[in-house]
Write a structure and sequence with these properties.
With about 375 residues, the chain is of the alpha/beta class. It is built from 14 helices and 15 strands. The protein folds into two domains: about 150 residues, Rossmann fold (3-Layer(aba) Sandwich); about 190 residues, Dihydrodipicolinate Reductase, domain 2. Helix 7 runs antiparallel to helix 14 and helix 12 crosses helix 14. The protein is globular, with a radius of gyration of 20 Å. The N terminus is likely disordered.
Length: about 375
């Protein structure tokens, strides 16, 4: 048994000591909503082997897909429900992790809020700012927390770069940010059919690469700019693989302008290698984040120096530990996962789509749109 525990901890990036320590806390009762988002395949094993949560249910209306996951992961079929109503009727769930289509995020939040159930969803927050504002209103009324999970939130180098930029003023005031996020495309890399089906549907995903990968840059930039909203957005989107993605873009560039800074978001389903990296240029230096745990810092009077950043510690180390701490009231959602940042993300993405449609720059209003 000890060998199995140690092996599982290694697979999911946990130490046996951390697993044992976390077991002393009451586990948060967690449910997974939806199985059509490919990231769920890694999330469920992580949840099952994290003592901070107890998986009490999985909601998936597609019984064939549910049966596939039950068999593949050797899950008890009693865990599965076909609706949120059935989940609430048979479990005392405290939080849900959402792996539905992006368009279904609003439905999940509006169903969970009256039950006081906190919601974490895979990025982005929603398909539109309108949906995001409605979700914010439902969360406020229900007294629940909303979190958005981005892989890049848990990159130690991103967190270290933020500390250097916002807290230590290492490179002076930010002047330009460039964020690259992309891969060869969901079909080419072998995403599950149920995942590809909605990723390439403009109503279910909100767009193609411009949404799927553009949201990462909008999130990082809003965070690095301390929540400041941009003054304008200009975007170009193209179809390099129309035979694979006839209904959505697969290549996009978004230029986000601030009064004293500029951001360039490059989102692609066409790159030959996977990329999630960032460049930050300030008045007195630059910080490059080429990999999740590497920083390269340069200033006018010093040569480039590369630093390896140590792993993050709980509750900032991973999405499950972070969600558990939020549900227990130990921390508030902040930064890249927070609702405030992600409402601005949706405002940027809405403006980017409008810019693509018109071919013109979109100027944002001075005041942020308010929730209904």
């Amino acid at each position: 048994m000890k060998i199995i525990i140690f092996a599982l901890c290694g697979l999911i990036g946990l130490s046996p000591q951390r697993a044992a320590a976390d077991a002393t806390k009451p586990p948060v009762r967690l449910a997974v909503i939806g199985l059509v988002h490919g990231h769920v395949g890694a999330f469920i094993p992580n949840a099952l082997n994290n003592a901070e949560v107890q998986l009490v249910g999985i909601v998936e209306p597609d019984e064939k897909l549910a049966a596939h996951y039950a068999e593949m992961m050797q899950l008890n079929t009693n865990l599965f429900f076909t609706s949120l109503a059935a989940l609430f009727a048979h479990t005392n769930v405290q939080a849900v992790a959402t792996f539905t289509t992006t368009s279904d995020h609003r439905r999940v939040v509006e169903a969970c809020a009256p039950h006081g159930v906190h919601v974490m969803m895979e990025k982005p927050l929603a398909v539109s700012l309108e949906d995001g504002l409605a979700m914010a209103a439902a969360a406020k009324k229900g007294g629940i927390q909303l979190l958005v999970n981005y892989e890049t939130t848990w990159y130690p180098a991103n967190q270290a770069a933020y500390t250097m930029v916002r807290e230590q003023n290492t490179i002076g005031e930010v002047r330009k940010m460039v964020v690259h996020d992309g891969h060869r495309g969901p079909i080419t890399i072998g995403c599950q059919p149920e995942f590809v089906k909605w990723l390439s549907d403009p109503k279910l995903n909100g767009g193609g690469a411009i949404i799927d990968f553009g949201c990462y840059g909008a999130d990082l930039m809003t965070w690095l700019m301390a929540g400041q909203r941009p003054t304008s957005v200009f975007a170009v989107a193209q179809h390099f693989q129309p035979e694979l993605y006839p209904n959505v873009d697969d290549e996009a560039t978004i230029v986000v302008a601030y009064p004293k800074a500029q951001g360039i978001i490059q989102a692609s389903w066409n790159w030959p290698i996977d990329r999630k990296d960032m460049e930050i240029y300030g008045q007195s230096g630059q910080i490059l984040v080429p990999r999740k745990n590497i920083l390269r810092i340069t200033s006018p009077d010093q040569p480039e120096r590369e630093t390896k950043v140590p792993a993050l510690s709980n509750p900032q180390a991973d999405p499950i530990s972070n969600l558990a701490a939020v549900v227990r009231g130990e921390i508030q959602p902040t930064g890249l996962s927070s609702l405030a940042v992600n409402l601005t993300v949706m405002e940027i993405l809405d403006a980017a789509r409008a810019s693509v449609a018109t071919g013109k720059r979109v100027d944002l209003p001075a005041q942020a749109p308010a929730a209904p």
